[in-house]
Amino acid sequence: MYDTGKVIIGLAIFACIFLFPFLYNHGTAAPQPKPSLDTPAIKALAEKKCVEDTHFMITTHMQFLNDWRDQALREGNRWYVNREGKKVWISLQNTCMKCHSNKKEFCDKCHNYAGVDPYCWDCHYDPNGSKL
Amino acid sequence: MAARILFPLAVVLAIVAVALIGGSIPFLQPLFSVALLYVSFAVFLFGFMAKVIGWAKSPVPFRIPTTAGQEFSLPWIKWSKIDNPSTTGGVLMRMFFEVFLFRSLFRNMRSDLRSGWLIHSPTKWLWLLALGFHYSFLIIALRHLRLFVHPIPGFVETLDAVDGMFQIGIPPLYLTDIVICLAVSGLLIRRLFLPKVRFVSLAADYFPLFLILGIVISGLLMRFVFRVDITAVKALATGIASLHPVVPKGIGAIFFVHLALVCTLIAYFPFSKLMHMGGIFMSPTRNLANTSRMAYHKNPWRKPPKFHSYEEYEDMYREYMKEAGLPLERE
C-alpha cells in the first residue's frame, strides 16, 4: 500500500463518522416511552376512549390538532364530529388537556424521545400548572 | 436504450414490492429490519474500506494532476495556485473547493452547433443540482440521527429547527425535502432528456437515481401520508445502534420499504459509482501537487537495463566467427 499513514487516517475518520451512532450509544438502547394515562379524569372515564382511535391518535395527532386549530380559529367552527358521529368541542386546553392533564408525562415524554419540538406551547399554556 | 432505464426502475420497484410484503408480515419484520440493516451496513463498511485499500495499492509513480490553470513557472507569469497547485497548501485548497463546492462541476461547459459554428458556453445547472442534492442528502442523513441516538445531540436539534423553520404544515415540511426532490428530479430529467447525456448514461447511472428518488418518496409518504409510530421506529433504530435490537409491534409496512431501499443503497455503494465519496480523496488527478518539473520522480518499476556488450557477443559466437574467417578483437 502506498501513503499508508494517510489512507489509514482517512479510513479511521470514515469509520468513526459512520459508526457514530454505535459509539455514541455505547450499547445502551433507549426503550420506547409509554405516555402516562394515569390522570384523575381518565380514571373516572367509564370507557377509556380518545376522540378518535388510538392508532390514529398516535400517528396523526399532530395533523389532527393542526386541523382543529384551523377549524376553530380560522373558520370559527368549534364543533368536531368524530368517526363515530360524536360531537366534540374543539379546544386543546379544555378538551384534550382535560383528560391529558399531565403534559410532562404525556406530551413531552414522546416528543422529547423523538426530538420533536411542537410549537403548540408558543401560544398555549398548560392549564394544569406545570411551568412551561 | 430503453432497457438501460427500465431495468433499474424495475429493480427498484421489485425491492419496494418485496419490502411491502415482507414488512406486512410480523414474523418477517426482524429479517426486513434488523438483519437487513446489519448485513448491508457491514457490506458498506468493509466494502468501502476494501475498495479504498485496493486503490491505495495501485502505484501512481508520476504526477498526473489535472492542470486547469497556469502552472508555476516564472515570477512574471501569473500562477494559478489552486487550479494548478504545486504545493501541499495549494492541493489542500484545491481539495477543499472540490469536496465542499464541486469546483470541477462549476467548470462544466456545453457545446452547441449554432448556425454552423461550434459554440462552447458555461452551464451551471449540473453544478447547482449536484450541490443541492449532496447538501440536502447530508443534512437529511444528519437529521436522521435523532432516531438512532439517545440523548439527541444539540446540533441535530438545531439542524432540525433550522431546516423546518418555515413551519409549513404539521409535521413541518423540511426545506431539504423540497430541495432534494427538485435536485434528484432535475438530475434524472437531465439524463432522460438531454440527448448527449442520455447517450452516455447506463443502467448503473439510472439505478442510484431511482433508488434515491424511491427513498425520498417513501420517506415523505411515511411522514405525511401513511404515518407510522415514530417512537416505535426510534426504539428499533436505537436498538440496532446499541446492538440490542428489538422490533416493536405495529410499525407500518411503508417503513420497511424506506428501510429496504436505504439498505440497498448502502449495500450497493461499494460496488458502484457512488464510491466517488471515497474516490474523490484518492484521485491522483486532484490530490497531487504539480511538481512534474520541479522535483525528480523516479520510476519505481525501472530495473537496471540488461546490456549485451560486443565482448560478450564475441565470446558467444567466437568459434563460428573464427570458422567464417571474421575479424576478432580478441583471439
State the major sheet of chain A.
2 strands, antiparallel
Give the number of helices of chain A: 6
Number of domains of chain B: 1
Tell me the structural class of chain B.
Answer: mainly alpha
The H-and-E topology of chain A, N to C, reads as HHHHEEHH
Number of helices of chain B: 15
Strand order of the largest sheet of chain B: 1-2
For the terminal residues of chain A, how far apart are their CA atoms?
Answer: 59 Å
Of all chain pairs, the largest interface belongs to:
A-B, 40 and 46 residues
Radius of gyration of chain A, whole Å: 22 Å
Q: How much β-strand is present in the residues of chain B?
A: under 5%
Known CATH architecture of chain B: Up-down Bundle
By oligomeric state, this entry counts as: heterodimer
Shape of chain B: elongated
Written as H for each helix and E for each strand, in order along the chain, the element string of chain B is HHHHEEHHHHHHHHHHH
Q: Spatial order of the strands in the main sheet of chain A?
A: 1-2
Strand content of chain A: under 5%
Shape of chain A: elongated
Distance between the termini of chain B: 75 Å
Uncertain spans of chain A: none
What's the overall average pLDDT of chain B, rounded? 93
